[in-house]
Every structure is written in structure tokens, then in C-alpha cells.
Amino acid sequence: MDESTFRPDKTEQFGTTTGSDAATIITHMIQDLESDNINLHVPALRELLNIIVDNCNSKYLTLKYKLMPLQNKFARQIEKNEEFVLSTTIQHVIGVRNGSDDKIILAGAATDSIIQTIFSSDEQISKAGSKALVELLEENTEIRKSLLTTGFISIVQLTLPNETLTHPIQSSSSSASMQKETNVPNHVRNNLLDLLLKLAGSAEDLQPLSILIPILERIKTDGE
Question: Could you tell me which InterPro entries the record lists for this protein (predicted)?
Fold first, then answer.
């Protein structure tokens, strides 16, 4: 086996090794991540994620070993492969642990991944994500404010542009036409609309939603 190949059981040693041994482990891991041998990348990313999760002082590791720029090698390739999933998860853990204490910003960490699941091609996963987010926004003011102010509205705009709302939501023929135009599965569209209506019904300040009035009006018209 190549000397730089990372061995999975080394993360078990990380919490009990000396500083020099720990440095050796992570150095080998980084060598694997920088290697041209793509078969080394996923195992190394998994073990790096384990180390980051298991060490609350991940700030030290992040800075010393320049872990955030290292993840860009995999995060810049916007493809839903395992390297992208693991590298962005590592960045997520580092960000939540060491980022803002502002509750509105921090709430985004609780919703971003759930919003991703709503876009799943699997209808059950998409619905589960929608239901989970509805529960969160109904229970938590910061979650509602975060959805209104930190990007969710823009996602709705991107997914449901006004010009596509010239077709009735429930009509099978028009739904097929709309799906072709937007490339958004019908179940994703409907789950987003359900979530949007819940948000509109529970938000203290509706001003951020004003840009979506055409969408809301169309929903009301199609429901009558």
C-alpha cells in the first residue's frame, strides 16, 4: 500500500496521540487529499470529517492545516458526488462551530440542509423535508426570520419564476407543461408552495414576502 494512503483506524488514535503523532496522521490525510489518485479522496475526506466532528477545538486544526482552502478542491466541482457531499459537510461543521453567534444567521445552519432535501427527486424525502421545515418555522421565531431574510425567498424566486405561473397548479396537462419549462418536479414545486403558505401565515413581518405576491396571488386563484 502506498505510504500516503490513509488508514481508517487512525482516527481512533487521534484523541489519544501526542501532538507529533496527530500531526503525522493529518499530514498523511492531506497528502491523500492532494494526491492525483482519486481513490484516496473519499476515504480521506471521511476520516477528516470524523476528526473535525470529534474535536471541538476544530478552529485550531482548521487554521494550522488550512483545511478550508483544502476543501475547495472538491467543493468547486458542483456535482452531487461523494467528494462534494463530504467536503461541504466538513465546511458546514467548521462554519457552525466557528461562525456567527447571531441567531438569525445561525438558524440558516438548521434550515439549509432541509431545504436541499425538499429538492430531492424522491417524493418521500422531499415531503419529509417540507414537513420538518414547517415544524421548525411554526415553533421558532428565529427560523422564520432566517427563512425570510437569508436566502429562502431567492430560492423560491429561482424555482418558481413568475412567468411560469400562467398555468393552473393542479391541471395535469398544464402541470406537465410547467414541469417541462422549469425542470422542477411537481412534488418539489408543491412542497415549496406549501412551505411558502405556512411561512406567510406565521411570519410577523410580511414585507420580505412582498416580492412573491404574484406567486401567492396565483396560488390563491388556482385554489379557488
Answer: ARM-type_fold
- Can you read off the three cell numbers belonging to residue 21? 503523532
Q: What is the CA radius of gyration of the chain?
A: 22
Q: Against a cut of 0.90, is the pTM above it?
A: no
Q: Is 1 a member of any domain?
A: no
Summarised one tens digit per residue, pLDDT across range 35-64 is 999 999 999 999 999 999 988 877 888 999
Give the count of domains, the chain.
Answer: 2
Burial track 116-146 (b if 16+ CB lie within 10 A, e otherwise)? ebbbbeeeeebbbbbebbbebbeeeebbbbb
Residues of the domain holding 157: 103-223
Please give the Cα distance from 118 to 130 (Å, whole number): 6
Half-sphere exposure of 172 (CA within 13 A, CB side): 0
